[in-house]
Amino acid sequence: DQVAEGRLGPSTVVLDHTSGFEGLLLVDDDLLGVIGHSNFGSIRATTCVYKGKWIYEVLISSQGLMQIGWCTLSCRFNQEEGVGDTPDSYAYDGNRVRKWNVTTTNYGKSWAAGDIVSCLIDLDEGTIAFCLNGISLGTAFDNITRGAGMAYFPAISLSFKESVAFNFGSRPLRYPLAAGRGGLKGKEPVLRPSLEPCVSLGLSLQEGKLVEKDTSVWQLQGEPTVLITLAHIFNYFAPLMCKVYLVEDVLMTFLLSILERGGAVEAHPLIQQLLDLMWLLMEEYEVHECLKQLLMSLLRAYRFSPIIPDLGLQIHYLRLTIAVLKHEKSRKYLLSNVLFDVLRSVVFFYIKSPLRVEEAGLQELIPTTWWPNRFTKEGKESKEVKEESAEERLRRRAYERGCQRLKKRIEVVEGLQVQILKLLLNNKDRGGGEASRYIFLNKFRKFLQENASNRGNLTVLCPPEYMVCFLHRLIAALRFFWDGHKAKTPATLSSEEAYIPPQLFYNGKVDYFDLQRLGGLLSHLKKTLKDDLAAKANVLIDPAELQAVTMDDLDEDEESAMSAAQRPSAALAIGGALARPGWLSSPTLGRANRFLSTAAVSLMNPRRPLGTLEKIKVRTLTVEQRTEEDIEGSHGNEGLLLGRPPEEPEQPITENSLLEVLDGIVMMYNLSVHQQLGKMVGVSDDVNEYAMALKDTEEKISRCPKRVSISGLPASSSDSSSIHEKREKMQDIYWLLRVCIRTIEHGDRTGSLFAFMPEFYLSVAMNSYSALKNYFSPVNSMEELPGYEETLMRLAAILAKHFADSRIVGTDIRDSLMQALASYVCYPHSLRAVERIPEEQRISMMKNLLAPYEQRPWAQTNWILVRLWRGCGFGYRYTRLPHLLKTKPEDASLPSLQKPCPSTLLQRHMADLLRSDRDLAPSFLNSVLNQLNWAFSEFIGMIQEIQQAAERLERNFVDSRQLKVCATCFDLSVSLLRVLEMTVTLAPEIFLDWNRPSSELLLRRLAQLLNQVLNRVTAERNLFDRVVNLRLPGLESVDHYPILVAVTGILVRLLHGPAHAERATAVLLADPCFQLRSIQYLLGHAEPSALAAAPPTTEKRHFSLHTYTDYISTEELAKVDKMLSHLSEESKQAAATTLPTSEEDLCPICYAHPISAIFRPCSHKSCKACINQHLMNNKDCFFCKATITGVDDFTKPSSS
C-alpha cells in the first residue's frame, strides 16, 4: 500500500492511552480528544512515521499553555518537561508564541480557542513546519535527526484544564495541503475518489426519477424498478456510510448542497425522502451509526466553524440539523440515543462570540464605538448631563445601526435554534411509539440531574454560557406551545399567568433528585407530614417506601462520607461509568471515558463506587420509564397533577408536560444561569471603566499642544454589543421571576405542605430580581417592565412573610431571604413596595424583626432595623463616613452605600409593638444590650492585640482576617447603638416609665453600657486613639465619629424633652463609670491636666462634634451643649449632697452603690442593680446558692 509506506503502527491512528502518556489526563472515548488534568501532562499517538511527508491537525479548544508537535520513543517526559523540552522532540506553543526544542525562540502567531493547528513533517528534507488555520507559519525546525531507529510520533503536552482534539485523517482535514502529504489515517483518503462518483450517480439517478413525478407526493411505494435499483446501490453504499470520514466529507457536503439552493427547509423534501430510503434500505445498526456520525459532524462544524459577520456558516449547519430532525423516525432515534447521551447537543443553542474582531468582520459592521456614559452604575441618569456633541451623536447613531444589523443576524440564528426545540417538543408525532416531547422530557430531566448532582465536578457540568442560551431558547419554545394550547382550549391559563402547581412537589411524579426542600430532606418530610398528605391531598405514603427511603438515606450518608475522601481521583478514574466527564471542553463533543493517570493505576478498578452507580441507575429508571399517560394523565388519572390540595383552583393550567419543562427551566436558572449573568455584567463594568478611562485620556490629550493619535478601545467596546443583554432576554428573566412568585404564593396557601417545595424556587425568585436590578444594561430599566410595581410588592410580601417562616428549616435559604429583605429596604422604590403590602403582614414582619436576638442570626435583622432608621438619627444622614469621602468605594451599587431612605410607617409599627406588648420590649432590648456588650468587648480585646503587634520592634503583619473581624465588631456595635437610639426615640417610656416592671433595670443597663463605651473611646491618648491613627487597611470604618454620634443620640433623647428625664439623669450620674470629661470630649473640651502636660509646640487636633457641620445640624449641636451644661450642674449638686459611705454600707458585689436590696429567704444583701442583673440569668443567691424567692427594699436603720 503506497500510503502506508513510511509509517509504523495501527492503520487507525489514536492517542496511546495504554503506555504513551505521562501525568493525569482525561481522554475521550474516540481516543482523539484530550483534557489535561495535572500540571503538565503529555501523551503521544499510537503510530509513528520514519520517511515521507506527513500531516495531522489539532483543534484548539482552549487557548492556554500547550506544546504540540512530534517526539521519538526515547523521549522521557515529566510534570515539568514536555514535548519540545527534550532532545528529539519538537513543539509549537501558540500561547507564548514560541517554538521549543530544548531551547526556545519566538515563532508563529498566537492561537485562540477554535483555531486549527496543522503539524507538518518532511522526513525526506528533515524539516518540521506548522500552519495556523491553513496559513503557513514557516519552517520551524530543519535538519532534524533522521536515520536508523528514528521515527516520530505526533505528541502534545498540556497544562491543567486545557483541551484539544486531534484529527489524524479519520475525518477530512480542515486545511488539506499540497498533494503528496498523507494524513496519518492512511486508507480512507484513497477510497474517496472511487466513492464520490458512486454517491453522485446513485443520488442523481434517484433525483432524476423522482423529479419527473411530483416530489411532494412521492411515497416509498414508488416504482419497483426505482426501488430495486436503489436497493442495489444502497447495498454497496450502506457499509461506507458508517465511516466518519465519508459521512463528513461526502454525505454532509451533499446534504448541505441541497439546502444551498435557498428557500425554507420545507422546500427541500429530498432530504426527508433520502432519510426514508436509508431507514428502508439500510440495516438498522447502519442507519443508527450514520445518523450519529452525521449529527456529530454537524455539531462539530457548528461549534468550531469561524464566525463571519452574517453568521452564514452557523445558519447553514442549523438548517441541515432542522432538516434531519424534521424526519420523525430519525428524530426519535436521535433523541432517545444520541442528542443527550452521546452529544453535547446544548451546544446547538449557543452562539459563540468571536475571539478576533477582524476575522468576524465586526469592524466593518460596527465601524465606531460608543458607550452610554450619561448613566451612573445604578442605571439612573447622572446629575451632570453633558450636552451630546454633534460628533458623539454621529458616533452613537452609527454604533446603534451596526448593533441593529448584528442583532438581526443573531435573531435569525436564535429563530432556527428555537425551531429545533419546537421539533423536540412536538407531542403530536405518535407514529411508531412515544411522542418526541416525552422522550425529550425524560432526557432533559436526566441532563438536569447530571448538572445538579455534580456541582463539584466541573468536567461533567454543562458550561454556564451554554446554559444561558439554552434557557432563553427553551423559554421561547415553551411559551409558543403554552399559548398555542391556550388558543385551542380557552379555559386554560396563558403563559403570562404560568405557575407550577404545588402538588408537583409532593406527589412523586417529578424527580427532584436529592435537592433540598424548604422543610428539609424529602424522606423526613414524608415521615412527619404523611397525615397532612393523606388528609389534604389524598396522597398515601406506602410504609414500605418509608422504610426503603430511610435505609437508602443511611446508605447515602455512609457513601458520601466515603466518597468525599476519594472523590477527585476515584470519580475520574471510572470516568466512562460516570455521567459524561469532559463537558468543559471535551473537544470532540463525545463522552470522555478514560481517565489516564501514571500515578494512580490502582484506582482504575475501584470497588465501592461502582456499586453506587448501579443503585443510582435503578433510582433514575423511574424517569426513563414514564409514559405519556403518566405525565399528561387520562380519564380519571391526573398524571403529574395527582393530589390537588383543596386550596388549589380546579381550573386547568396547561398541558402537564409543559409544566415539567417550566419546572426544569427554573431549576436551570438556579444551577448556573444566574452566576453567568453576574460574570457578564462584570465584563460590561470593565468595558465601562475602559470607556471612561479612554474618554478621560482623549480629553487630556486634546488639551496638549501637540496632537497624539490613540486607538484604544475599538475591540472591547464594539464587542460590548454582545454583552448588552437585549430587552427580550430581560423580559425572559422577568417572566421567570413572576412564575416563581405565583408558584410560591400557591404553595404558601397549602399550609404545612409548603415545606415540600424545593428551595431553588425561593432562590430563583430572589436571584432573578437581583439580576433584573443589577445585571442588565443601564439603558434597559426595570421600571419599564409591565406590572413592575405589583411584582415588586408581591416579592416584598414573600420576603416579609417567609424570612421567619417556621416551615423553612434550611439555614442557607433563611439567610438568603434575610439578606434579600435587607437589600430590599435599602432602595427607595423597593422600600415603598414593602410599605404597600397588607398591614397585618407588615406588623407581623416587624414583630419577627423584634424577636430576641439569641438563638438566631441577628446581625441581618439588626441591619434591617438600622436601615429603617437611617436618616432620622442624630448625625445619621450620611451615606459614607466623613473620613472616607476622599477614598473611592469599590462598588457604589452596594446596598450599604445607598442614600438614607427611612420608613416612618414601619417605625410607627415598631413603636406600637414595643408599647403594646409588655413582654416583647424587655426581651428584645435585653438581647440588644447583651449583644452590644459582647460586640464592644470583642472589639476592645482585638484592638489591644493589634496595638501590641504594632508596638513590637520586629517587622510584623496583623492577619487581615483579624482586622476584618475587628472592623465587623465595631460596625455591629455602632448599628446596635443605633437600634437603641431608635427605640429610645420611638418609645422612650420603655426606659423611663417605671410603672413598667423592667424599665429601671433596662435604663441602668443602658447607662452602664453607654458610660463604658464613652470611657473607652474618649480617654486621651488611649488605645482607641492609637489604633485609629494607625489607619490600617481593613479598619477604615473604625473612627470616632460613627460611635460617638450614636451614643450622643441616645443621651440627648434620654435627657431632653420627654417626661421623667430627671430619672435618666439620676441613673446616669449614679453609675460608677460616669465621667463628665467623656461628655466634654464630645465638644472638644480637653482635660486641663492633658493640656498642661502637653508641650506647647504640638498642636494635636481634638475631636469635636462642631467640626462636622455638614453632618450635624445646629439644633442638634445646641442640644448637646445644653446636655453638657445640665450634666455639669447636676453632677456638682450630686457631689455636694452625697455623704461619704462607709465600706460596710456598700454593695459587696460592685462596691459602687449603697446596699438597697435584701433577698428572701437567705437575707443576704446587695444593691438593686446587681441583683436585678443577676436574676435575669440565674435564680441562685450570690453567696449561699439558695434559690431566691423574692427581693425586698432595704434601708439601713438610722443609728440613734
UniProtKB/TrEMBL annotation:
Q: What is this protein called?
A: E3 ubiquitin-protein ligase RNF123
Q: In which pathway does it act?
A: Protein modification; protein ubiquitination
Q: Does the keyword rRNA-binding apply?
A: no
| Subunit structure comment from the entry | Component of the KPC complex composed of RNF123/KPC1 and UBAC1/KPC2. Interacts with UBAC1 and CDKN1B via its N-terminal domain. Interacts with RIGI (via N-terminus) and IFIH1 (via N-terminus).
> Which Pfam families did the record assign?
SPRY, TPR_RNF123, zf-C3HC4_3
The alphabetical list of record keywords is: Cytoplasm, Metal-binding, Methylation, Phosphoprotein, Transferase, Ubl conjugation, Ubl conjugation pathway, Zinc, Zinc-finger
Q: Where is this region: Disordered?
A: 627-651
Q: Which reaction does it catalyse?
A: S-ubiquitinyl-[E2 ubiquitin-conjugating enzyme]-L-cysteine + [acceptor protein]-L-lysine = [E2 ubiquitin-conjugating enzyme]-L-cysteine + N(6)-ubiquitinyl-[acceptor protein]-L-lysine
The broad enzyme category this protein falls into is transferase
- Ranges for domain B30.2/SPRY come to 1-173
Q: What are the residue boundaries of the RING-type domain, all occurrences included?
A: 1147-1185
Q: Which GO terms describe its molecular function?
A: ubiquitin protein ligase activity; zinc ion binding
Taken from the UniProt entry, a GO cellular component term is: cytoplasm
Q: What is its EC number?
A: 2.3.2.27
Entry's Gene Ontology BP terms = protein ubiquitination; proteolysis involved in protein catabolic process
